[in-house]
Amino acid sequence: MRHAIAIATLLVSTTVVGAGDASAQSDRGLVPRPGEFRRSGLALGIGAGTAFAFELGDLVDVNGFGGGPSFRVGTTASERLLWMLQLDGAAYLFDAGEETGVNQLAVLAVAGQVYVLDAFWLKAGLGVANYRQQVRRQIKLDPTDEFPGVGILTGLGLDVYQEGAIAIGLEMTVSTAVLADGVILQGWTGVGFHIY
Question: What is the pTM of this model?
Fold first, then answer.
């Protein structure tokens, strides 16, 4: 009888401990611990990287390599979903005979960013675009042409560092400018810094 009571007591103790461990594990995904990364509230971000552009249409002297910044401000709709207003811009130099041409493409879009994994996200957005061609004349930049249009933003990223409300990651973005005279594709690769 004593052995039976001892065995029963051991089984109950094991069950209680196991249930407690399971509850603790389930709470880890719901209750933030000190120093644990969580997305909530206002979202701010900035990025910098290299870029390339090429055109599909009647525009000339578009293809080139360069770089530029990216600015984001928005809100966290949930642990996985963020809404952002994002401005991406880049400048490109090209050889224009005796002069050096400067092309600039900017896309301002409302974008949704979804974390499909804890540190990996996908992004898509729609907005406006503006393409500007310039020619460098000695030390002065004279604008030559400006083309407004529709901007489409797609991208992906991987957070390599997450701590508290800070995330630092690697990003790739494709900005598509649909203009009256053609379509420009801008590929951007860089590093992003976010505060959630």
Answer: 0.73
